[in-house]
Amino acid sequence: MRAQDKIGRHSQRIKLAAYSSMARAVGQRRAWSRALMLKLKLSDKRKNRYRWLAARKMKQQKTLRRGCGRILATKRNRSEKGSPSRSCSGVDELRRLVPGGEAMDLGVLLEETAHFVRCLETQVRVMSIIADCFP
Amino acid sequence: MTNTCKADDFNLYPREPRGIFGSDSEPDVGRRGRFGSGGFRAGCGDGFGSGYSCLVTNILLFASTFYQVLTLSYLKADYINTYEAASLINRWIIPDFVLLAALTLLLLVSGHWFMFLISVTITCYQMPDFWPPNRLQFQVWRIRHQIISPVSWDLGSGVHPIKVTAQTSSPETLSNPQRVATESNPRGPDGADMEAPARSNEIALESFQFHDEIHRLIAPPTVNASTFTALLELSHSRAVELLHLPEPSNYSAAASNGSLQPYFQHLGAGGTCFPTNSTPVERASVFSVETDAISHKVKDEPLAETTESDSNHIISSSQSLPSDFHAEDKGQRPGKRKDREKKAKGSGKRTKNESSGDADELPYVHVRARRGQATDKHSLAERARREKINARMKLLQELVPGCNKISGTALVLDEIINHVQTLQHQVELLSMQLAAATPRIDSNFHSIFTTERSSLEDQNFSNMVFPLPWSDPQSNVLRQYQPQPCHLNPLQHTVWGREEFKHHLITSENSHLSYDSPTNSAAVHSIAILKRTES
Description:
The complex is a heterodimer. Chain A has five helices and no strands. By secondary structure, chain A is mostly helical. Chain A has helices at 2-26, 31-48, 51-76, 84-97, 106-133. Chain B is an all-alpha fold. The longest helix of chain B has 29 residues, at 409-437. In chain B, 37% of the residues are buried. In chain B, the strands form two sheets. Chain B has a two-stranded antiparallel sheet with strand order 1-2. Chain B has a two-stranded antiparallel sheet with strand order 3-4. Helices cover 50% and strands 3% of the residues of chain B. Chain B is built from 19 helices and four strands. The interface between A and B is large, with 83 and 103 residues. Chain B: One of its GO terms (cellular component) is nucleus. Chain B: Its main location: nucleus. Chain B: One of its GO terms (biological process) is vesicle-mediated transport. Chain B: Residues 166-196, 298-363 are annotated as: Disordered.
């Protein structure tokens, strides 16, 4: 059980490190990287101490971003309700996958997805190179 | 088998008081009791001792077998992954064998010859797993992975995800998809050397090749303005930097050519290479250049705010671009102007100006409806938005392999979602592999990567946290290169220059070979490759 816990925790940490390094490499330029860094920072704080504080902060951030997103969405999509049923589920799923995707417009979401996909591919390559070093 | 033995034992000595045996309450019990009693007198001299110990041993064996089967059923149901399953089961292999041997001895002592023979057979069956000290046998399964040519640097072929093949020697296979289809171009001469050198001796060579490998990933960016995606990645500072580099002549020349060439983006921007010529890309490039013309003028927007606007402030290009492309601007679709104007409205909150003046210099304005279409404000806005979304979808279609043939937004979206999920699973799989490969973790490993360091992004140099494989397991070395003062990191930070890095790597390799981290002697392997410049 201890070995399993160790490996599980270790792999979790490596995964967190991978995502964090990927987000930090992009920096503040992208919405998804900002959202990812914020999420990691808040979850890190939550793990260590003051869970309630971190949870509250995260909820505040989420409502803030969602509010901004909603305001802007209503500003822009005044006339557009084009085919919500067709692309609704896919877009929702995409919003779940891309960090920070809940508060994004569709155009912004697609662009962030493109950048996110490229960064993910690069991350996979880098990690595979590292894993190649070990037998 | 053990169950029947246990049943036998239980029937044999139901509730007899100690020291009294051979009671003929039941004929078969009596017979066995007499038989067993002889053995007892010869052995323990105690009626219940070996019987109950047999019972206890059997119960324990049964429990461990049940636990292993439960673990495998968890694995099948995807509650745990194969590494966890293997470690759980591995923990019980030796106790199992010990218990079985104890049971054999007890049966021998207590004189149950038939059961003794059976358990001896089973023990001898399991013996070859243990007697030749071959540790490989202890593992439930092994994964051998071959990673072939992680990237194809041939610039004409687009993005190739890595091909990972995992061969397992047990029927259990990972639930995650492990095969990513690709074709792999042959690696350079360094690639073959990656597996060749002996790990114990040629650490410098390995690290050098590793550096080489990473360096090939971070190729110098040859940014070309004529692709949409290139323009996506250019930030203002980067564009300015490009102006000052000796490259801008190529840059503007290529831009003026208008020829689509594949390019390398920087790793920090998600370095991949993109497929060449395609008409939607060309159209998108022109489209994006027009937007650049605007975003360039609205550059005074604070770059930090994002939720409000599109990535307008990110799409900015050098000064030379708009002049090159304005000539083509006149003949383009006027619908783009509306979109331009919309972008400006989004970012700058300027009022919409409906005059049809000179469209080229002013950032906002200039709605011009096409023939036969409604000139309604809302429909124009909607059309512009839809065009923008279509352009982005085309970009995504280029990015995700195999998406070009699919038509229909929903299917393309599904494909994109599938691709993202695949990539995330690949990251998780690789992290599990790395976790299994490395011996221990550092307690402060987590804090290194998750604490927010804003200075890191602002600074205009790159640093590399570099995993250097250890030469032998005994010397656990922690090597990190970070600019910030970290309590784990007294080493110097390196700027990412090719020659200097190589030099740093090899020399510091020698000098820090016996370095132990202050916290513990665990080896931390992580890599965080940051951007070379602010890009």
